[in-house]
Amino acid sequence: MRAYIYDNVPGDQRLAHDSGKSIDVDTLAALGVTYRRIELVDGWQGEIDAFAKERGYKNRDQITVTPAGLGEAYESKIKQFFDEHLHEDEEIRFILGGSGYFDVRGANGELDDQWIRIALDAGDLIVLPAGIYHRFTVDSANTITAMRLFQDEPKWTPYSRAGGDTDARDARVSYLSGVRGGIAA
User: Fold this and answer.
1) Alpha-carbon gap, residue 123 to 179, rounded angstroms
2) Of 147, 1, 140, nearest in space to 62 by CA
3) 118 by DSSP, 3-state: which?
4) How far apart are CA 122 and CA 89, in angstroms?
5) Buried (b) or exposed (e) across 66-77, using 16+ Cβ within 10 A?
6) Whose CA is closest to 152, among 137, 130, 174?
7) Helices (H), 9-156
8) CA angle, corner 30, sides to 6 and 179, nearest 5?
9) Which runs of E-coded beta strand occur in the chain?
């Protein structure tokens, strides 16, 4: 995992867009983002099971995003994933293969409202708290496989910031209260 300020230079979202300004794991934690590295060697499933039990995740599935797998829908799906949005539940991804980027919005101080790009590859596990603005894209390799974990029945309901009502959603209000109050989610 590598995190840094997104450079906001127009162009393909799948490129690195690295501003050269690194962000450390502690800064991500202050935004409520949880990160763990779990090597994909014998026994990794036990580590995922323990993590899931610790956090109350009861369900999981797997998603693969590739041009071959999604066919003609690939480009539209990538654009949909890259739309700035939030969820009312945590978003948990464990990368099994390939690579991609999660961009999260800073929410405090000098990072307020800046994009932080988190580059992930196989063995990276990330938990985005409910209410954080984020977006996702594959990188230029155009392939990623991830395990998704859920506290209840699998669901993935994005609320687009472009919709105009996301700042008033309970998940967003609670997220900002926790982060600005110094309590990591």
Assistant:
1) 27
2) 147
3) strand
4) 23
5) eeeeeeeebeee
6) 130
7) 25-30, 44-55, 67-70, 74-82
8) 100
9) 2-6, 18-23, 34-37, 59-65, 85-86, 91-105, 115-121, 124-128, 134-138, 144-150, 159-160
Res 182: pLDDT: 64
Residue owning tokens 């101080």: 109
- Give per-residue pLDDT as tens, 53-97: 999 999 999 999 999 999 999 999 999 999 999 999 999 999 999
DSSP 40: S
Say if CB 63 and CB 156 are below 8 A apart: no
Calpha distance 23→118 (Å, rounded) = 9
- The pLDDT, as a whole number, for residue 110 is 78
SS3 101: strand
- Strand 115-121 vs strand 2-6: parallel, antiparallel, or unpaired? antiparallel
Residue carrying structure tokens 């580590």: 47
Q: Which residue has the tokens 């390799």?
A: 141
- Tokens, residue 39: 């090597």
User: What Rg value do the Cα atoms of the chain yield, rounded?
Assistant: 16
Calculate ∠ Cα 135-126-52, nearest 5°: 130
